[in-house]
Design a protein that fits this description.
Blueprint lengths: L2 E10 L2 H12 L2 E6 L2 E5 L12 E6 L10 E5 L4 H14 L2 E2 L10 E4 L5 E4 L12 E8 L2 H11 L2 E6 L3 E6 L6 E6 L10 E7 L5 H11 L2 E2 L10 E4 L5 E4 L4
Parallel strand pairs: 1-4, 5-8, 9-12, 13-16
Antiparallel strand pairs: 1-13, 2-3, 3-4, 5-9, 6-7, 7-8, 10-11, 11-12, 14-15, 15-16
């Protein structure tokens, strides 16, 4: 058994406006799954597919109460592309963000609801990921996170050090899942968490039990009676296991 990372979930006050921002930012399309939920995914995309990690924008009464430790890194192909993308994102409503990054070659921005993300300088490793280079999770112990998430998902570990771990779909397509060592509480906003999905025919409850055995804990975030299950990894990062259907 294994789980697939299929989307990131982004909390919002205005799910339609934020969904449109991210669709325009990535060159993707939008659809309304149900009232309060906007899907952002590549045009013509047959979900789920490892070639892309999609975005679900979900309205919540008070997103300011949510401060997850994940964010998105966007890929570029050249210095000119990076500059053009930053300019276009700014025109769409993004703003420069200072999170103490100092003098770095990437650009840190915040989306219209204040969620921080990065526009990377060109890097060869991300040349075939699509517009999202990586989903990045801050953590205290990248090695431990790589062990947990490597067991939880069917993704392959590509690199691990004391400071950084990198996984990618076993098919070698789509963005990376990265764990970056940054101990201590986060000082800036990100309302992004991960959504995982069992393969068709697998049992959701069995997957929850398997992840609990790996060190995850079941959490109550006020979700009520829903089809997904909310868990936290060994460092307390919340994520959801969707139904296999």
């Amino acid at each position: 058994m294994a789980l697939r990372l299929v989307q990131v979930n982004l909390k919002a006050r205005d799910e339609s406006a934020l969904g449109r921002f991210w669709a325009d930012a990535l060159g993707w399309g939008v659809s309304v799954e149900e009232p309060g939920v906007v899907n952002v995914e590549p045009l013509g995309f047959a979900w789920p597919d490892p070639s892309a990690v999609c975005i679900d924008v979900v309205i919540v009464p008070d997103p300011e109460t949510v401060r997850y430790r994940a964010h998105l890194d966007l890929a570029t192909t050249s210095a000119a592309h990076q500059a053009e993308l930053v300019s276009r994102l700014t025109d769409l409503g993004a703003t420069p963000a200072d999170i103490g990054q100092g003098d770095v070659p990437w650009t840190v921005l915040a989306d219209p609801e204040g969620n921080v993300f990065c526009v990377l300088e060109p890097r060869e490793i991300y040349r075939d990921t699509g517009p999202i280079a990586a989903v990045v999770v801050d953590c205290a112990d990248p090695r431990a996170m790589a062990r947990f998430w490597g067991e939880a998902t069917d993704w392959t570990l590509h690199e691990v050090t004391d400071d950084h771990a990198r996984l990618r779909s076993a098919q070698g397509v789509g963005p990376y899942l990265e764990f970056l060592r940054k101990p201590g509480p986060r000082s800036w906003w990100s309302r992004v968490h991960l959504d995982l999905k069992p393969y068709s025919g697998d049992d959701q409850a069995a997957e929850v039990a398997r992840l609990e055995a790996l060190g995850a804990t079941v959490v109550d975030v006020g979700q009520g009676d829903v089809s997904w299950r909310c868990l936290a990894d060994p460092e307390g990062n919340e994520f959801c296991i969707l139904s296999p259907g």
